[in-house]
Amino acid sequence: MKKTNVKWLALVLSALMVVALVSCSASGRLDSESMNSSDKYYDAPSSAGDYDYAEDEMEMKPSEENADGSMPPVADDAETSSDGKTIEEKIIRTVEINAQTKEFDQVTVKLESMVRELGGYVESSRSNGAGYSSGSRFSRNANYVIRIPAEHLDEFLTRSGELCRVTSSYSNVSNVTATYYDMQSRLETLRAEKVSLQAMLEKAEDIETMLRVQQYLYDVISEIESYETRLRVLDSKVSYSTVTLYLSEVVEYTQEVEEASWGERLGDAFVESWLDFADNFQGFTVWFVNAIPTLLVLGAIAAVVIVLIKKRVNKRRAKREQDKEEKS
Q1: How far apart are CA 94 and CA 92, in angstroms?
Q2: Contact 119, 224 (CB under 8 A)
Q3: 84 φ/ψ sector (left φ>0, alpha ψ -120 to 50, else beta)
Q4: Of 53-67, 160-174, 249-263, which has the strongest mean pLDDT?
Q5: Where in 135-239 does DSSP place strands (E)?
Q6: Among residues 89, 44, 98, 41, which one has the least CA distance to residue 67?
Q7: 6, 110, 140, 199 - which has most CB atoms within 10 Å?
Q8: E-only strand ranges, the chain
Q9: What does the CA dihedral 257, 259, 260, 261 come to, rounded to 10 degrees?
Q10: Bridge-partner residues for 246, per DSSP?
Q11: 28 contacts: CB under 8 Å, gap ≥ 6
Q12: Residue 264 burial (CB count, 10 A)
C-alpha cells in the first residue's frame, strides 16, 4: 500500500512539473510578443475598467478639440507574433459627454431610438426635475449609461452631437491586448492541467490519492471559471464601448465667450439681472395664484381674531371708564 501511495504521489508531482514547464514556456512566448509591440501601444500606462491592466493600457486625456464628441483615432490593425500567429488588438473605448437641449422630451426619445438602431442598449438611466412647460423654474436632467458596438461608436458620437449641444466630452482608450492574451494562455494551461488531473483521478487506486487529486482538480476548476469570467468581461468591454451621457434641459444654450470687455460684462450683468427678476416674478405670480385659497382662509381667520380682540379691548376700556365714574 505504501509503495502504491509513493508511486501515485510521484506521478502527481511529475504531472504538475510538466504543466509548470508548459506554462512557463507559454508565458515566455507571450512576454516576447508583448515586447515586440510595446513601442507602439504601451507608452502611457493607466488603469481602467474593473481590473488592473497596469502597463497594458493607454489613456488619452480630454482636450478642447473633443468637445463635439469626436474620438481620437485608434489603431485597429492586428499584430503578428514571433511564431506567425495573428494577435487581434483588444481596445476598450469609453466616452463621457455633457450636453444641453431645449427639447428634452423629443431628444430623449430620439436618443433611445438611435441607440437601438445602432445595435446598442441603455445599461442604466435616471432622470429628475420638472419641465419649464409645467410652470417649474427648475430644469430636467437625465443620466444615461449606454453600450454601443465599438464599430458604431464614432457614428453615435456624431449623431448625438447633431441631436443636442455638446458642452464637454472626455474619451479614454485602453489597450488590454497583452493582459487578454496572457489570461487566455493561462486558461489554456489550466484546461490542460484539468485533463491531466481527471486522467489521474480515473486511475487512482486508493482513497488518499483520490482525495489529493480531487483537491488539486477543484482548485484548477475554480481558477478556470475565474479566468473565463474575466475574459468574458473584457470581451464585452471591447465589443461594446461605454458612453456616459449627462443631458440637461435649458431655456438658452450656454454661450462660450472668449474675453469680454468691462462694458460688455457690465451690460451682460444688467441684462442677466433683469432676466432673473422676470424669472423670479413669474415664479412668484404662479406661487401667489396657487396660494390664493390658503391666503383667503388665513385672512378670514385673522379677521375674526382681530374682531374678537378689538371687542375684548373695548369692553375692558368701557369697564375702566365706568369704574372711574363710580369712584368720582
Answers
A1: 7
A2: no
A3: left
A4: 160-174
A5: 141-149, 165-175
A6: 98
A7: 140
A8: 79-80, 86-87, 91-101, 121-128, 141-149, 165-175, 240-249
A9: -170
A10: 98, 143
A11: none
A12: 11
Q: How far is CA 230 from the centre of its chain?
A: 19
User: CA gyration radius for the chain?
Assistant: 37
What CA–CA distance (Å, rounded) separates 267 from 279? 18
Question: According to the model, what pLDDT value does residue 62 have?
Answer: 40
Which one, of 85, 40, 94, lies nearest residue 181 by Cα? Answer: 85
d(CA 278, CA 137): 11
User: How many residues comprise the chain?
Assistant: 328
Residue 132: which pLDDT band, with cuts at 50, 70 and 90? low
Strand blocks (E) in 105-210: 121-128, 141-149, 165-175
Grid coordinates 468591454 are at which residue? 237
Residue 76 predicted with pLDDT over 50? no
Q: pLDDT category, 318, cuts 50, 70, 90?
A: confident
The three-class DSSP label of residue 166 is strand
Residue 204, helix vs strand vs coil: coil
Q: Tell me which amino acid residue 24 is.
A: C
CA dist., res. 96 & res. 127, Å (int): 17
Cα separations in angstroms, 318 against 191, 268, 292, 314, 324: 108, 64, 38, 6, 10
Which residue is listed with cell 464601448?
Answer: 241
**Beta carbons within 10 angstroms of residue 320's beta carbon:** 9
User: Using CA atoms, how far apart are residues 227 and 190, in angstroms rounded to an integer?
Assistant: 10
For residues 213 and 200, the answer to whether their CB atoms sit within 8 Å is yes
Inter-residue contact 27 to 179 (CB < 8 Å): no
Rounded Cα gap, residues 235 and 176, in angstroms:
10
End-to-end CA distance of the chain: 135
Close Cβ partners of 24 (under 8 Å, ≥ 6 residues apart): none
pLDDT of the residue at 80: 56
Tell me the whole-structure pTM to 2 decimals.
Answer: 0.52
Domain ranges of the chain: 2-249
Element (H, E) at 197: helix 177-203
